[in-house]
């Protein structure tokens, strides 16, 4: 169900992307006779984890349903440099018109999946789940969230609507952690309630208020271990999430403190597009 939700806006996302690229028509493609047919192959020029099959398919479906896309890999597959990813057959004009838009989706989402797979490998065996954040490319929220899962990581909340994340300013406006949590549970029963804390006093308040998840913001390693212990001793323990200033150098040691989750904005905001190439064959 969650995956279906992340894929549900593919047609609308592709429509927007094509509109900004095509405008009132591909004037360069018009140099080619309308009846000319062609075949093309897309390869990855580097090692990667692939993501974006649905977006590529939709690009060519919207441009010209006569184009045939033959995939040689699937979302989540690891590929090597120069490995073919898919082949195209159809009107030459349509293949060229769709090329950049299709590859933009594929290179960006594969970049997200690839960095997610790298970070997931760093915590393998610890039991911790790596979470993405809302630091996504505007308009590609669901797409990048899906790519994160293809790389072996997990989604935090999708947006502002499906889970609470109560931060310092929310607490100040509500009057207290207890008031904010109680109001959240009353307003939207059943939706996860998470509280961000920066001290052990705030941790205690969040646990006493029976928050479902407590985000430990910028706690050092010793602080994380102590928070895990205090949580275990509490009559209504929560899930604990480490966040803030985490990178590849610190990730493993943080995972080993015993927290349940680690959230990392790098998964979506710092991804490097995978180098792809399309050639007629």
UniProtKB/TrEMBL annotation:
Which pathway does it operate in? Answer: Cofactor biosynthesis; NAD(+) biosynthesis; nicotinate D-ribonucleotide from quinolinate: step 1/1
**Keyword terms:** Glycosyltransferase, Pyridine nucleotide biosynthesis, Transferase
Q: Which Pfam families match?
A: QRPTase_C (PF01729), QRPTase_N (PF02749)
Question: Boundaries of each Quinolinate phosphoribosyl transferase N-terminal domain copy?
Answer: 26-110
Assigned EC number: 2.4.2.19
SUPFAM superfamilies in the record = Nicotinate/Quinolinate PRTase C-terminal domain-like, Nicotinate/Quinolinate PRTase N-terminal domain-like
Residues forming the Quinolinate phosphoribosyl transferase C-terminal domain are 113-279
What EC class does the entry list?
A: transferase
Function statement: Involved in the catabolism of quinolinic acid (QA).
The family annotation for this protein states:
Belongs to the NadC/ModD family.
Name of this chain's protein: nicotinate-nucleotide diphosphorylase (carboxylating)
Write down the species: Amphritea pacifica
């Amino acid at each position: 169900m969650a995956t279906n939700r992340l894929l549900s806006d593919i047609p609308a996302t592709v429509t927007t992307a094509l509109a900004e690229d095509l405008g009132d028509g591909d004037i360069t493609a018009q140099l080619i006779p309308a009846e000319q047919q062609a075949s093309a192959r897309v390869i990855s020029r580097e090692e990667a984890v692939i993501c974006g099959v649905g977006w590529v398919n939709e690009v060519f479906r919207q441009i010209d349903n006569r184009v045939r896309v033959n995939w040689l890999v699937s979302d989540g597959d690891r590929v090597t440099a120069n490995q073919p990813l898919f082949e195209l057959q159809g009107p030459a004009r349509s293949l060229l018109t769709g090329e950049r838009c299709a590859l933009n989706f594929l290179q960006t989402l594969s970049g997200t999946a690839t960095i997610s797979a790298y970070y997931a490998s760093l915590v393998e065996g610890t039991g911790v789940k790596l979470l993405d954040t809302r630091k996504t490319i505007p308009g590609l929220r669901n797409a990048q969230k899906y790519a994160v899962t293809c790389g072996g990581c997990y989604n935090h909340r999708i947006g502002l609507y499906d889970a609470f994340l109560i931060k310092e300013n929310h607490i100040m406006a509500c009057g207290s952690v207890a008031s904010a949590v109680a109001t959240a549970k009353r307003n939207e029963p059943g939706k996860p309630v998470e509280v961000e804390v920066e001290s052990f006093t705030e941790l205690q308040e969040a646990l006493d208020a029976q928050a479902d998840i407590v985000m430990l913001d910028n706690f050092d390693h010793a602080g994380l271990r102590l928070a895990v212990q205090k949580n275990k001793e509490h009559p209504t323990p929560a899930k604990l999430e480490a966040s803030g200033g985490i990178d590849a150098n610190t990730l493993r040691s943080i995972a080993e403190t015993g927290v349940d989750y680690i959230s990392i904005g790098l998964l979506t905001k710092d991804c490097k597009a995978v180098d792809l190439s399309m050639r007629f064959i």
